[in-house]
Each structure stands twice: as C-alpha cells, then as structure tokens.
Amino acid sequence: NAGVTQTPKFQVLKTGQSMTLQCAQDMNHNSMYWYRQDPGMGLRLIYYSASEGTTDKGEVPNGYNVSRLNKREFSLRLESAAPSQTSVYFCASKDRLYNSNQPQHFGDGTRLSIL
Amino acid sequence: QQQVKQSPQSLIVQKGGISIINCAYENTAFDYFPWYQQFPGKGPALLIAIRPDVSEKKEGRFTISFNKSAKQFSLHIMDSQPGDSATYFCAASRRSGGSNYKLTFGKGTLLTVNP
User: How many angstroms away from the CA of A29 is the closest CA of chain B?
Assistant: First the structure.
C-alpha cells in the first residue's frame, strides 16, 4: 500500500529553471494538497484541489502552478525557480470532501534546492 | 497572521517523563484539531485528533486536552520514550471557501527524549 508517492525525492535547480513535482495517491481520495515546509514556519498550503478538475490557491501560491491531472495525480510546477523557493515540498491527500474529520495523508516530500 | 500558535519550539525530556506541547487558536470556526508527528526525512502522519465538543481524548500514551473557552489545546505524551523524538505539529481545520476543509498548522515543536 503505497499511499502518497512523490517524485523526485531530491532536486537541485539553478535560478530561472523550471520544474514539475509529481504526486500520486492510490487511496481513491478526492482532495489533494501541496505544502511547503521551511524551518520554523510549519507547513504552509500552496495550492489544493478539492476534487478532480478543480484547483484553488492556498496561503502561499505565488510562483507556483498546479495541475490535477486525474483523481490520482496532482502536480506542482515552478515556472522560473527562485532561491526563495528552496524548501521541502509535501503532497497530501484526503478522503471525503465534505467531512473535516478525515486526516490528510502525506507523502515523504521532495527536497528542492535552488542555487 | 498566525492562526494557530504552538509552543515551545523545542523540548527536551528525559525517558519516562511527560512531554507537553501547547497550542492556541483564535478562530472559533475551527472544528477539528489534529496533531501530526513527523520523523526526519518523512512526511507528517496523523497522531491523534479531537473535536471541540470533547474536553479530552486519550490514545495509549498520547492525550489531547481541549479547553474551548480558552481556545487552547495541548498534547501530553506520558512515559516519553526515545522513539517519540520527532517534530510535532498541532493543526486546526475549518470549512473554507466552499465545501473543502483546509488545515492550518502550528510552527512545530522538536521533541527530544533522552535515554
């Protein structure tokens, strides 16, 4: 049972390069999320997708785009990477759309460094 | 604007001792309060959660105490073990922007349990 799978696990980019972070879940969850985690900042929501075909901005969306490719997959794209985007990125998914009692299940993260 | 304030930032406890992490929130619309545990190199995983109509929830050595009037909740880890050493995040969830529920995280507490 894989849960939430993120690729790649590590990546180093140069400023201005573009990159897509991939996320897939095999739990048939409706909702998917992208967070970034920085030291002392907790987890901050970048974008989320309540269901297939919909995406919405979170707390820190600037510099990112997302695509909900299908129910399983939710990708995060950096069009022109900046050093401020150096972070650990987590994808998460959640079951039932209309129920707050469902936990979010997280992947193990993508560690991204931008030089 | 930080909606969930977590303290302390770090905590060192001796094996067998009690670890206590506190969180405070401002928005009374929050209706679900989970705690996540994160080990190095891994994504956060749900540890225990509580709803505001309950004052306490216990699962094994982990207990959430909830004070609705004070808008505070805390995690108590009894008989702390070295294997409990991890970063702990409190979070709060509310219905936002339609039907989806989003989590707001505290900034995390790094717990070290010395043998």
Answer: 13
The model's pLDDT over B2-53, given as tens digits with 9 standing for 90+, comes to 689 999 999 999 999 999 999 999 988 888 899 999 999 999 999 999 988 8
Nearest to B42 by CA among A19, A98, A4, A86: A4
User: What is the distance in angstroms between the Cα of B101 and the nearest Cα belonging to chain A?
Assistant: 6
A-B contacts (CB, under 8 Å): 61
Residue B104 to residue B84: CA distance in whole angstroms: 23
Least confident segment among A15-19, B27-31, B42-46, B106-110: B27-31
A83 φ/ψ angles, rounded to the nearest 5 degrees: -55, -30
All residues of chain A having their beta carbon less than 8 Å from the beta carbon of residue B86 are: none
Nearest to A76 by CA among A32, A29, A30, A12: A32
Q: How far is CA B6 from CA A89, A113, B10, in A?
A: 21, 27, 10
